[in-house]
Amino acid sequence: MFSEISKIPVFKGFKTSEIIQLLNTTRYQIREYEPESVIAHTGDNCNNLYLLISGSIRGEMNNYNDKSIVVSEIHAPDTFAEAFLFANKNKLLINIIATTHTKILIIYKNDLLQLLNKNIKILNNYLNITSNRFVIVTEKVKFLMIKTVKGKLANYILDLEKENKDKLSFSLGKTHEELAALFGITRPAFTRNLVKMKNEGLVEIKNKEIKILNREKLLKLLS
Amino acid sequence: MFSEISKIPVFKGFKTSEIIQLLNTTRYQIREYEPESVIAHTGDNCNNLYLLISGSIRGEMNNYNDKSIVVSEIHAPDTFAEAFLFANKNKLLINIIATTHTKILIIYKNDLLQLLNKNIKILNNYLNITSNRFVIVTEKVKFLMIKTVKGKLANYILDLEKENKDKLSFSLGKTHEELAALFGITRPAFTRNLVKMKNEGLVEIKNKEIKILNREKLLKLLS
Q1: CATH code given to domain B2-143
Q2: How high is the ipTM of this complex?
C-alpha cells in the first residue's frame, strides 16, 4: 500500500520509508468504498483531506430539479477536497461518489495542519497542489466570461501564440474534450467552431499543430 | 507601521510585538508606489507575497484589443497574489496597479515558506485565506455556467433558502454590485431581472429581505 501512497503528489520527493515514518506520527484512517457508494454528501462540513490510493471518484452537483451533473473526476494517485479544506465556508457543494472500488487515506484537518507544520517538503507540495487548482479554476472563469465560443477560441489561440513566442505553429495543448470543459460548452460545439475558423481561413491545422493565418480577424472576434 | 501590519488577515491573532519578532527573523522589503504606477506586469513570474499595508491596488486584464478591464480591487489591510504563488504556472495574468499611494511589504516565496513552516498560526491563517479565495472563484464558476440571468438568480435564491433553513425571508447577503460581479453581468441587468421576478410574483422583497412566493416557477427557471 505504501508504494501506492508514495505516488500521490502530496508525497512527491519522498521515499516510501519516509512516508511510513511520517504516517507513524500522524493519525489517519484507511477506508474502502464499493462502486457507486457515496463518500461525502452535499452540505457536509469538509474536515478531511482525502488521499485517493486506488480507484476513481467523481463529484456530482445536484441541481434543484433532480438532475445531477458530474463536475469533476479524480483518479488515483491524487488528493481531493484540499483546495477549500481550510475555508470558512467549507460545506461541500457536491456529492462525492466512488466510481470504482476505491481505497482512500483520510487525514483530519487539524492533523494535516500539524503534518504541514512539521515537514516543509509536504508543505511545499501541498501549497503547489492547491495553487495549481486555483490557477485552473481562474482560467475557467476567464473563458466563461467571454460570451461567444469563437471569442473563447480566439483568446485561447492568441494566448498560445504568446507562450510559444518564436514558433509559427504550436500544439493546442489540450484535447477537444478538455477545451470544451474549460470553455463550458459541449465537445461537438467546440469542434464545430474550430472547423469553422479553419474553413474561414483564420487558422490552419496540420498534424495537430495550429498556425494563425489571419490575426486581424482573430482579434475582431474578441470584441 | 507594525500596528497597520497587524490588521492584515495573515497576522490574525498575533500581537504587534509577536509580528515584530517574526519579521526580525525573516527577509522582507517595504516598497511604496505612487498612484497609477505599475507594481507588477502581465507575464512576470510571481515569486512574492504582497502584504498591502496602506492604499489600494487593482488588477487589470489586458485584452488583445488594447482594452483593459479591472478584474479585482484590493484595499489595505490585505494580501494579494497568495492563492497562486506556489503554482507551476505562476506567471501573472494581470497588471497590478497602485490605485492610490500604496505601501507594500514584500516577502519572497522561499522566505514565506520558511515562515509558514516555522509558525503554525501563520500557516493556518494562510491556508484559510487561500481556501477562501478558492471558494469565491469556484462559486463564480458555478454561476457563470448557468446561461440565463434568471437562472442564476433562481439558483442563488434557492441556495439562500437552504442556508436559512427555518426562516421565511432572508437577506440577499451581498450588494447588487457584488451579485452582478458574481454572475458576470452588469449591475443594471441584475437589478432589472430581480425587479422582473418580483413583478411576476416569484419573490417578495421587503426591508432588504427576500421571500420566495412561487417555488414552482423558480425551479422552472433552472432548466
Answers
A1: 2.60.120.10
A2: 0.88
